[in-house]
């Protein structure tokens, strides 16, 4: 049973870094001759980010949960069918009543893959099937590198044309994301041990890469006049829509889990892996799929949704952990010495001929207590 400390409901520190990055880009955007250098650094950071993610992916962990194919299909359906349907519905309802680019960003958010690290972490905290979560979240990201650009091409105008499909965008994502990811994973037998030992040291590389991409995107957006077209009312509307989207998806996943009779441990996987969207994948993909001046606006819904999903999932994971906690009964005396000591403390005397029967009965009671206090285990 995983022991869980009380979740913090303070803003995610990474969110504070994102806000600081947006503020920096708003006051000191990249301009002129510096743009090619910053863009080159951003491309390198993205490639390094996905190389490390590929190297961190444990093939053994994925294979351990691969047999639960029905659960993985449910997670993929939630990520790539349910979410897009909700996104399309919200955009259709709000068309003409909100900023067009923000609505594009809301739809784009609904097409992204699930997160990996936080999905697995929340599943572990809640007492779910961690092996299946590793497989589902990893599969969602690998599929998303190819499927998300295709869905974007089918469901929105990426380049202002008809279907919006762009082979150049697919090529850029393949070179920037998929190739480094596969290279890192193929090199895992040689560098995996080093990566696993230094995860805390490498975490700033992960987050620093995202912050650099956000800074570059918002610099272009600020130069293009983002804050003259996006106001407080727009941000509050995005907050509300993100919350509505997340609640609908979580409610649908819980309903599906009950309908098909998923075990509790698998229901937790579906709830967390099927309701999240990846900032790590979404921000770099947006840079490849949309014009530079639009990326800052388009990723705003994703940044807002990112914090909401962390906040709500932390609360739910803590609740599941409390519900699944195994009550501990006091250990019963088992050996003759323990029985005699307990009898003395109670002022009892156990005759020698009775000791064998007392020992047997206490062992039986101990087994019954274990059964009584047992909970579902993966």
Automatic annotation (TrEMBL):
Transmembrane residue ranges: 73-94, 106-127, 139-158, 170-187, 208-229, 235-256, 268-290
Pfam families assigned: SBF_like
Keywords: Membrane, Transmembrane, Transmembrane helix
One Gene Ontology cellular component annotation held by this UniProt entry: plasma membrane
Gene3D superfamilies the record matches: 1.20.1530.20
InterPro entries in the record: Na+/solute_symporter_sf, Put_Na-Bile_cotransptr
Protein name: Bile acid:sodium symporter
Native source species: Sphingobium terrigena
């Amino acid at each position: 049973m995983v022991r869980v400390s009380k979740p913090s409901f303070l803003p995610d520190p990474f969110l504070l870094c994102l806000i600081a990055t947006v503020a920096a880009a708003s006051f000191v955007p990249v301009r002129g001759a510096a743009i090619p250098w910053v863009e080159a650094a951003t491309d390198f950071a993205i490639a390094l980010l996905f190389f490390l993610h590929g190297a961190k992916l444990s093939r053994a962990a994925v294979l351990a949960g691969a047999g639960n194919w029905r659960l993985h299909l449910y997670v993929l359906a939630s990520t790539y069918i349910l979410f897009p349907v909700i996104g399309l519905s919200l955009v259709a309802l709000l068309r003409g009543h909100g900023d067009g680019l923000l609505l594009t960003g809301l739809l784009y958010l609904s097409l992204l893959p699930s997160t990996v690290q936080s999905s697995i972490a929340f599943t572990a905290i809640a007492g779910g099937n961690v092996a299946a979560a590793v497989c589902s979240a990893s599969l969602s990201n690998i599929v998303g590198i190819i499927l998300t650009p295709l869905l974007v091409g089918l469901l929105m105008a990426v380049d202002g044309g008809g279907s919006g499909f762009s082979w150049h965008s697919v090529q850029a994502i393949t070179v920037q994301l998929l190739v480094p990811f596969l290279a890192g994973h193929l090199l895992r037998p040689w560098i995996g041990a080093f990566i696993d030992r230094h995860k805390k040291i490498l975490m700033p590389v992960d987050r620093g890469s995202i912050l650099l991409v956000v800074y570059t995107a918002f610099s272009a957006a600020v130069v293009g006049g983002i804050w003259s077209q996006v106001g407080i009312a727009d941000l509050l509307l995005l907050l509300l829509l993100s919350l509505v989207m997340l609640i609908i998806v979580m409610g649908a996943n819980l309903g599906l889990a009950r309908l098909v009779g998923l075990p509790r441990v698998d229901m937790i996987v579906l709830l967390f892996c099927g309701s999240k969207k990846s900032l790590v994948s979404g921000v770099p993909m947006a840079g490849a799929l949309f014009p530079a001046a639009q990326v800052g606006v388009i990723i705003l819904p994703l940044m807002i949704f990112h914090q909401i999903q962390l906040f709500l999932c932390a609360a739910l994971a803590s609740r599941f952990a409390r519900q699944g906690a195994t009550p501990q009964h006091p250990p019963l005396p088992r050996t003759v010495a323990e029985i005699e000591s307990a009898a003395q403390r109670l002022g009892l005397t156990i005759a020698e001929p009775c000791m064998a029967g007392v020992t047997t009965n206490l062992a039986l009671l101990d087994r019954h207590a274990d059964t009584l206090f047992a909970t579902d285990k993966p």
